[in-house]
Amino acid sequence: MRFNRQQRKTEDAQIDLTPMLDIVFILLIFFIVTSTSVYESSLDINRPFAKNAAQEKRIAVSVMITEQNHIYINNQRIDEKRVRVMIKKIKNRNSATSLLIQADEKALNGTIIKVIDAAKEVGIEQVALAAKSQ
After folding, report:
1. Other CB atoms closer than 10 Å to residue 85's CB: what's the count?
2. Three-state SS at 71
3. How is the chain split into domains, by residue range?
């Protein structure tokens, strides 16, 4: 008995890496673009020191006031006249009950009071001022 042995041709299996590389480059570009926009939007606020500063965990609305008395809500500069409207929008959107003011130590008290008054007008009763602990 004679067996017919046919030689099998073995083909090397190849995987096309082009689609995977396209996705990797798209993700890389996405992360580069988003990371640069995050760094540009952050503000440098020099908060005053307080001996009895406590950490608040449940803050719904955060307002920043710079040394030049510029008001920022959600990293967006807001005119003093529009502060109440913006706080009201945020309060209605996520049922906010508290407000955190991160004011520079050289910011004027009048600007801080205007923000507190705007918060009280829209129904936010819990207002906290951010400070650095020593």
Report:
1. 13
2. strand
3. 49-133
